[in-house]
């Protein structure tokens, strides 16, 4: 994990943290930076855990959103496919053909053993059956390929997403009502519909049950803070975004 740990610096953590407030208002700032970081992270993981980099790899992005990731993976020489269930997200990015697929992450429209790297970034907390999505990701990964699931932990400071840093600790429905009352509209991520409670322990337990788990770490933390993932209870509040890595 030398390359992966080497990129996990405090400077990177602070850069990503500063971009979070722009998600709703200047999405190109937030998602552009996140896309570059995601491609670099997966390239580092691939170099550390498989014989190859992303160059020439077939990569599936499950829930790729408005398409900011495609260019970054192209820079790494990957053959990229972004899957997105929302027509509006595809339309916003101008995605309509090669490299963009509309589909359901829990029923991937691909054959078994199709991709070298299959990943999802901040998707698990937005669907009710994220374990089914994980099983589908494993199914379409080639033997020896990587499956990477990164998601926002509910009890972390960003678990409530745009509803604030603390209201979700009272409860998801409370946070939703408070946001609607304050802003005069529903949040983009609606509790019980498009936002769900996924703990760090949930993701770790699922990964271990697959028998394919290689590693897990906090995505936005410096490498010297990765030990937080190993501490029950503390990890629910301190990890913020958990990455679990499987090798098919």
Summarize the structure in words.
- Helix 3 packs parallel to helix 4 (69-75).
- Strands 3-2-1-4-5-7-6 form a seven-stranded mixed sheet, sandwiched between helices.
- It has helices at residues 2-7, 10-19, 27-49, 69-75, 87-93, 130-140, 167-170, 172-183, 200-210, 234-238; strands at 58-62, 79-84, 100-102, 115-121, 141-152, 213-218, 241-247.
- The chain has two domains: 2-160 and 196-247, 3-Layer(aba) Sandwich (Rossmann fold), CATH 3.40.50; 163-194, no CATH class.
- The chain is globular and about 50 Å long.
- Strand 4, helix 6 and strand 5 form a beta-alpha-beta unit.
- The chain contains ten helices and seven strands.
The CATH superfamily of the largest domain appears as Vaccinia Virus protein VP39
Instruction: Please report which band the strand proportion falls in: under 5%, 5-15%, 15-25%, 25-35%, 35-45% or over 45%.
Output: 15-25%
Which residue ranges are poorly predicted, with pLDDT under 50 across at least 5 consecutive positions? Answer: 87-98
Our count of helices gives: 10
In N-to-C order, the SSE pattern is: HHHEHEHEEHEHHHEHE
CATH topology of the largest domain: the name is Rossmann fold
Strand order of the largest sheet: 3-2-1-4-5-7-6
How would you describe the shape? globular
Overall mean confidence score, pLDDT? 90
Give the tally of β-strands: 7
């Amino acid at each position: 994990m030398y390359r992966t740990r080497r990129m996990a610096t405090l400077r990177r953590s602070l850069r990503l943290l500063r971009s979070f407030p722009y998600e709703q208002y200047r999405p190109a700032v937030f998602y552009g930076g996140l896309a570059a970081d995601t491609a670099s992270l997966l390239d580092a993981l691939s170099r550390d855990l498989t014989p190859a980099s992303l160059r020439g790899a077939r990569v599936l992005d499950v829930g790729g959103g408005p398409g900011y990731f495609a260019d970054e993976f192209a820079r790494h020489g990957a053959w990229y496919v972004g899957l997105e269930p929302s027509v509006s997200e595809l339309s916003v990015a101008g995605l309509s053909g090669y490299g963009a697929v509309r589909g359901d992450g829990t029923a991937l429209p691909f054959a078994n053993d199709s991709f070298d790297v299959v990943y999802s970034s901040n998707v698990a907390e937005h669907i009710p059956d994220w374990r089914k999505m994980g099983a589908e990701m494993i199914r379409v990964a080639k033997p020896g390929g990587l499956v990477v699931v990164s998601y926002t932990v509910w009890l972390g400071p960003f678990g409530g997403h745009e509803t604030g840093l603390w209201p979700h600790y009272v409860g998801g429905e409370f946070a939703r009502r408070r946001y609607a009352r304050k802003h005069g509209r529903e949040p983009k991520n609606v509790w019980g519909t498009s936002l769900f409670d996924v703990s760090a322990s949930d993701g770790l337990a699922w990964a271990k049950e697959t028998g394919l788990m290689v590693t897990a770490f906090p995505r936005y933390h410096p490498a010297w803070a990765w030990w937080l993932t190993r501490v029950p209870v503390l990890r629910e509040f301190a990890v913020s975004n958990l990455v679990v890595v499987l090798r098919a």
